[in-house]
Amino acid sequence: MKGRDWLVTEDGQYQTCKSVRAWDLLRDDYRFHRFLTEVEDVLSDTEDEISHLPEIRMLVRRLIVNSYWVQSRYLEPSAQTGISVVLLYDELGFPFTVQTVTLAPGTLSKIHNHGTWGVVAVLKGEERNTFWQRQPHSEFKDKIERTGELTLFPGDIISYTPDAIHSVEAVGNQPTVTFNIYGETHMRERFEFDTVTHTAKNF
Question: Which fold is adopted by the domain 5-202?
């Protein structure tokens, strides 16, 4: 599975990052529990989690390259909402959210940030990311402006800083499936944005 690595920052800009070659990541019996432990080890005893995003992207790519189990752990999109989520690990006190997300073609998310770092790998389909930047105005302190867009394909991995603002849309004629890992969410810093009323609310 070929792919590119990307980073999106709070100014709505995205940049390509150095990606590790898949054949350098091949491991025998590399399992999901090992991935979880390695991510936890990378982030232990640090407050600057953003500086570790390159390592986390590498670990996500290693997992995808070696684990058919992870690539197969998804649901068909809901007929009602166009989205399905499979939580891959849930333990009280575990500081990360790890899940696969399926979007039906044409499904569009709200404009949002995550209030924490995030790394998303596209497993199937295509996903268009649209990026936004805060442009506070004297009358509208939560005003945002569109800064660009990027379409991701299978094998692409994108990472976000906590204040990066985006929306996603499944494009093409088949569902989009992604593997997602997020840090511990700070709910007071996670927002959904409205470009009509220029407001933001906790999300």
Answer: Jelly Rolls (2.60.120)
Q: How far is CA 183 from CA 99, 109, 117, 129, 132, in A?
A: 12, 20, 6, 20, 21
The residues near 185 (Cβ < 8 Å, ≥ 6 apart) are 97, 114, 115, 116
The CA-based dihedral angle spanning residues 96, 174, 21, 42, taken in that order and rounded to the nearest 10 degrees:
0
Average pLDDT over residues 147-163: 97
Structure confidence at residue 201 as a pLDDT band (50, 70, 90): very high
Residues 6+ apart with CB under 8 A from 23: none
Question: Domain spans of the chain?
Answer: 5-202
pLDDT-based confidence at residue 112 (cuts at 50, 70, 90): very high
With 60 as the cut, is the pLDDT of residue 1 above it? no
Taking CA atoms, 67 is separated from 97, 115, 146, in Å, by 18, 28, 36
Cα dist from 152 to 15, 32, 68, whole Å? 13, 24, 21
Quote the longest CA-to-CA distance of the chain: 58
Alpha-carbon distance 157 to 5, whole Å?
5
Tokens representing residue 115 in the block: 């209030």
Question: Is the pTM above the cut of 0.85?
Answer: yes
